[in-house]
Every structure is written in C-alpha cells, then in structure tokens.
Design brief:
Elements: H1 2-13, H2 51-54, E1 62-74, E2 77-81, E3 86-90, H3 93-96, E4 107-114, E5 121-128
Parallel strand pairs: 3-5
Antiparallel strand pairs: 1-2, 1-4, 2-3, 4-5
Length: 129
C-alpha cells in the first residue's frame, strides 16, 4: 500500500521538474511590423477581391465578393455590383434560405466563375448579409 502511494506521489510530482521544451519563448521582443519579411501583416496587406479583378480570373476560379444585389433578371439570375463593376450571378432559391435582400444592403457572396458562356457568370453557393 505504501509502495503504491509512493509511486503515485512520484508520478504526479515529476512533471513539475521536467525541462521546458517547445512553445512560445518570449525572451526576445518581436520585430516591428514594418520589419516583417513574410507572412500575414494585417488588413493593409489583405487583397480585396473586386468584380473587375474577378472577371480577369480563369474559368472555375473561386470568388468571394462584397457588394449589392441590384437587379433580378428572372429565375435564378441576378446582377451584382460593387464599386468597380457589375457581374451576372446565379443564386439558387435555397441559397437565400428564406432571407430577403434589398438593393441597398451590403452582402457577401462566395462561388465559382463560369466563363464558358457569354456573358460570364458567377455561380453562388453562399450568401451572407
């Protein structure tokens, strides 16, 4: 019984005396933001995808746009506009999920570019208000 109790105490105490391996070591101060050579630097370096830029991308490219839904062309076809240009988009009814979108509301859409037909269209698979 004493042997088991001694081993239990020994096993619980030994991790306290273990060497500090891995993890963040805050011994040295990090470099200033303007001195960072690579990696994510914040919003000033983030690329914003625009409709104008999206139109230059290849067929099947994944797009993420932010703007306004300005016109319903019938069926699942709509016109989407941001500050740079406008594009025809296809939004199936189930993507709306019962939500109503007004032309003055800013929305985000994700989908793929389809350049096979004229004019090119974006097939939307996610809409966020």
């Amino acid at each position: 019984m004493k042997l088991i109790l001694s081993l239990l105490v020994l096993l619980t105490i030994s991790p306290v005396y273990a060497d500090d391996q891995g993890g963040l070591k805050e011994i040295v101060a990090p470099p200033a933001p303007h001195k960072i050579e690579d990696g994510y630097r914040g919003t000033e370096d983030a690329r914003v995808m625009t409709v104008k830029f999206a139109k230059t991308m290849h067929d099947g490219a994944t797009l993420s746009l932010r703007g306004n839904l300005i016109h319903h062309n019938g069926g699942d076809h709509y016109i989407f506009r941001d500050s740079t240009d406008q594009i025809e988009i296809i939004i199936p009814k189930n993507i709306f999920d019962g939500r109503e979108v007004k032309p003055d509301q800013m929305i985000s859409i994700n989908g793929t570019l389809d350049k096979k037909g004229k004019p090119l269209v974006m097939k939307v698979d996610r809409l966020q208000k």
